[in-house]
Amino acid sequence: MTDSAENPRVNGGETTASSTLPTADGDIHVRQDGPRGAPALLLVHGSASSTRSWDPVVPLLTGSHHVIRIDLLGHGRSAKPDGCVYALPDQALRAGAALDLLGVEHTVVVGHSSGGAVATALAEERPELVSALALVNTGPGLHAFVAPASASVAPSRWPPTDEQLRQFASTGFSRAGHRIPQELLDEVRAMTRHSFTETMRATRSYLEQRALPDRLAVLGKPLLVIFGADDRRWRSSSASEYAAVPGAKVELLPGLGHSPQLEDPQRTATRLLAFTAMHTARLGPGS
User: Fold this and answer.
1) pTM attached to this predicted model
2) Are 145 and 207 in contact (CB under 8 A)?
3) Alpha helices in 153-237 (DSSP H)
């Protein structure tokens, strides 16, 4: 493990640290917040995003959890190799390898948007690591995708223009004109053309192969699905399809869009904490 230039900070017993972990395909940037002896909670960002997409909600989770965030390969401060396979099972295995290096044996995994598909793949590839899953505005299948083509970033021109970035990010919120954090736009610009196009293609391929409720139904993992009712990328009514997963809890959040952890961190954290409280009590400290 290699520490980054950002030194660990200790505030009220909670440690914040940023580090780089080596994997066979490239270095993975990891951010850790909260007490290391608390139950682990892994947060997985969506496509063309990064650990920063969780910034507003993390302080609300660290009172009871060791919160771990990773930049998936091709994103954020992780490596962006051009000759790499960005398939979701491979991304999941890299996340699992990072948890191994951190000494984490069990974790609740929370995935936002396509990060929910990566979380599902992690439960498939490394079921012993995943004690429960929470998906935040993760469409169950491609049929639920509703974002207009005009909101996409054209890979023919790279890096994207400011206007392309704004159009791409705008559907991530419940209403047009929502202030989009500049750092999130910068994360898209920092991607390579290859990492952007291949990660988008990887999500499409994973959902084409099998819908998420079908995958999750056979895993036997506790499941929470949170969906902003005003999502402009994925049809919020499609959240009901997760009811096919035995014991799944589905919650629609009125007035919120595709990124509830950014639009209303408190409401999002309240749902997550209620869920994790039920599924971490049986795990020992540091699990």
Assistant:
1) 0.91
2) no
3) 162-170, 182-190, 193-209, 212-217
Q: What is the torsional sign of CA 53, 141, 248, 128?
A: negative
Q: What is the residue type of 257? A: G
**Distance from C-alpha of 140 to C-alpha of 101, rounded to nearest angstrom:** 31
Q: Which residue ranges make up each domain of the chain?
A: 14-146+195-280
pLDDT at 188: 87
Q: Is the dihedral of CA 247, 252, 257, 263 positive or negative?
A: negative
Distance CA 51, CA 43 (A): 8
pLDDT at residue number 217? 98
Amino acid identity at 207 = L
Residue-level pLDDT at 12: 43
Positions of the chain with pLDDT lower than 50, given as ranges: 3-8, 10-13, 150, 281-287
Place of tokens 């005003």: 230
Side-chain-facing half-sphere of 204: CA atoms under 13 Å: 7
Alpha carbon dihedral 62, 68, 70, 76, in 10-degree steps, equals: 20
Q: How far apart are CA 131 and CA 88, in angstroms?
A: 19
What pLDDT is recorded for position 167? 82
Query: C-alpha angle 139/260/96, rounded to 5°?
Result: 60
Look up the CATH number of domain 14-146+195-280.
3.40.50.1820
